[in-house]
Amino acid sequence: MEELSTAQARRIALRAQGLGDRRPGVTGARLDRRHFRRVLERLGAVQIDTVNVLARAHEMTFFARLGPYDRSALANWLHRSGEVFEYWGHEASFLPVDTQPALRWKMEDARRGAAWGGIVRFMREHPDYLRSVRKAVEQRGPVVPSDLHDGAAARRTGPWWGWDAPKRALEALFWTGDVAAVRGNRFERIYDVPERVLPAVVIEAPTPSEEEGRRELLRRAARAVGVGTAADLAAYYRQRVPKARPLVEAMAADGELVPVRVEGWKQPAYLHPEAPLPRRVGARTLLAPFDSLVWERARVERLFGFHYRIEIYVPPPKRVFGYYVLPFLLGDQLVARVDLKSDRRAGALRVRAAWAEPGTNRAQAASELAAELALLAGWLGLDAVTTDDRGDLAPALRRALRRRTGS
User: pTM to 2 decimals?
Assistant: First the structure.
């Protein structure tokens, strides 16, 4: 069995995630949908999140791999190209449209009660209402929940994230695939029947068996991670490990995956047969908390020795590093982390805290981080980068930023 060092596994993972390549936007190249398409096809899924303290999570995922690009061009491609759809991939995700057939078993599972508990209860208790909402979407779509606020439809059935009956019904139908959604100008979901959202070639594609659908998601996961355990591959599209592990082993027996040992890993690992092993990785970028490289925190620790937890939902006095903390990738290592905020009123990218990882050359990390922050600020249309005092990297970062501005 082939053996990989931790460093080799790390470089494989970074290249698979599109993080070892030169970012075309940094060199001034004009980016278009071909670049966006390449990123989405490579990752297989880009997570969506509504937190907008810096930029949308999916925008940061593309920035990490492309450098500066036209955000309106990305939005136009995601919402209007017919090449992308939204569904529960890892979490809520943008996915290539040709993934949809492989996810139909998940939609069927949702019909049988495998969705979120509150959704399941609503489906069980209001089947007639769900059918009426589906008919209304067919007749009146595209719609937002407020379009269905007529009579009984507007009554709330108890507090649940502030969702009223139309919103709950539309979300239930979204889980089951009976409606699809696009994002509006305020990033809200706008619902319509799948036939008006997805290309005909996708709608008419045969539905694979559950096993083949699961295997296809595992194939895509393996391409996206490069090398990982069965649990890593399962987690990419939120499959249960007991269901996924036998399929991963069968795929290895069929030659679709290559069993390998990775230094320091307790579990067997699987390598995508076409995953390249670069001699070096010259990356420099910031990773949003919802970037696919850091989805699985245990894998991040195995690959980088980097303990990472998002602290958005942690009470402020108990936060260790900050509210919206981004790991900083330099070369093939995560060397620092920064708590960032886009202060649009002041026109500044604010570094609320900056921390170096143990053993990091702080002067070098600060210099490279200052350059990356300046690039990010320019892309966001902000005029300055400011640094608070919190964190052991903050003094060196402040000096590096001053050198860049000559102040």
Answer: 0.94
